[in-house]
Design a protein that fits this description.
Belongs to the D-isomer specific 2-hydroxyacid dehydrogenase family. This is 2-hydroxyacid dehydrogenase. By secondary structure, the protein is an alpha/beta fold. It has 11 helices and 14 strands.
Length: 338
């Protein structure tokens, strides 16, 4: 009998995971529900983006062989209290809430569920882009305020179309590839900058250097992982290379972008509009220049939040456990959460 702790939360709930595990036999499953998202995640001990439930885990883990979780902090302290633990499955793109060095030192295998939110994040990206191009949040607020602004039909005030534009994607993983397919369905020309992209997956997109992508893109959308190489990769210098009046979207990682430079580009009119789901500091500070910048659309890091994402994460976790139980090899995980 394999003892499994499902440390769920109010998004990837224990019930979803237990239901997904129903097809497997020989499991003794116990559950715990953490406070996220009603209580924000943060750094806990030596791991990031976790719920502060170390004490609960320390009490629950003795005798547990497998942990399935999204937000539980698998810290050095927690792992030390789990001598029987053999496998951790994190229902996210990467196990940022796991001390990987401590897990490796104890011979604990770590797996994750990459791609579980690719559909949701790609669709949210397109929604942000369309909202920015057509100024939907601002005009919605205007109507609610009792206005009916026919002046927005003026040529210098109207929005623009996605069809016929040139859209540049920085990063071409699971989310970027799906965004590219949607953009092409809108009759946009798609450029891609990703040194690690497989040319066989371009499917009509054009691979270019970052300089060429910036100089040609009327729409710029970021989909890169946050690494030492990509942190701060789009700043004032890069924004100045975009065609005047370009639109910028970021639903990947806030650390990719200099938001103060973005606010200045919006104020000057160099950027026509921008839309963001992620920020360099979250929650967005009260003094962020984005709060007063014109023509900006903001959402609170919700791109991957759909019912289907939660269900997909639970199913992929069950598949990961089944694969582990059968001894099948899997690719090593990374620390990325995207």
């Amino acid at each position: 009998m394999t003892r499994v702790l499902v440390a769920g939360d109010h998004f990837v709930t224990p019930a979803l995971v237990v239901d997904a595990l129903g097809r497997l036999t020989g499991l003794d499953v116990v559950t715990h529900t953490g406070p996220w998202p009603y209580t924000p995640f943060g750094r806990v001990g030596d791991v990031d983006e976790a719920s502060d439930i170390e004490d609960e885990l320390v009490a629950l883990l003795p005798g547990v062989d497998v942990v399935i979780t999204q937000m539980a902090p698998l810290t050095e302290r927690v792992l030390a209290a789990a001598p029987a633990l053999k496998l951790i499955v994190v229902t996210r793109g990467g196990p940022v809430n796991v001390n990987l060095a401590a897990a490796e030192a104890r011979g604990i295998e770590v797996r994750s569920t990459p791609g579980r939110n690719a559909v949701a994040a790609a669709e949210h990206t397109i929604a942000l882009l369309l909202a920015a191009l057509r100024m939907i949040p601002a005009t919605h607020a205007s109507v609610l305020a009792g206005e009916w602004r026919s002046d927005l039909y003026a040529l210098d005030a109207v929005g623009s179309e996605l069809g016929g534009t040139t859209a540049g994607l920085v990063g071409y993983g699971a989310i970027g590839r799906r965004v590219a397919r949607i953009l092409r369905a809108f009759d946009a020309t798609v450029l891609v900058h990703d040194p690690y992209a497989d040319p066989a997956t371009l499917d009509g997109a054009e691979a270019v250097t970052l300089d060429e992508l910036l100089s040609r893109s009327q729409v710029l959308s970021l989909h890169a992982r946050l690494t030492a190489e990509t942190r701060g990769m789009i700043g004032a210098k890069e924004l100045a290379r975009l065609p005047h009046g370009a639109v910028l979207v970021n639903s990947a990682r806030g650390g990719l972008l200099d938001y103060r430079a973005v606010a200045e580009a919006l104020e000057s009119g160099r950027l026509r509009a921008a839309a963001f789901d992620v920020f360099d500091v979250e929650p967005l500070p009260a003094d962020s220049p984005l709060r007063t910048a014109p023509r900006v659309v903001l959402t609170p890091h919700l791109a991957g939040a759909t019912v289907q994402t939660a269900r997909r994460a639970a199913e992929q976790a069950a598949e990961a456990l089944e694969t582990w139980l059968t001894g099948a090899a899997v690719p090593p995980v990374t620390s990325s959460a995207t």
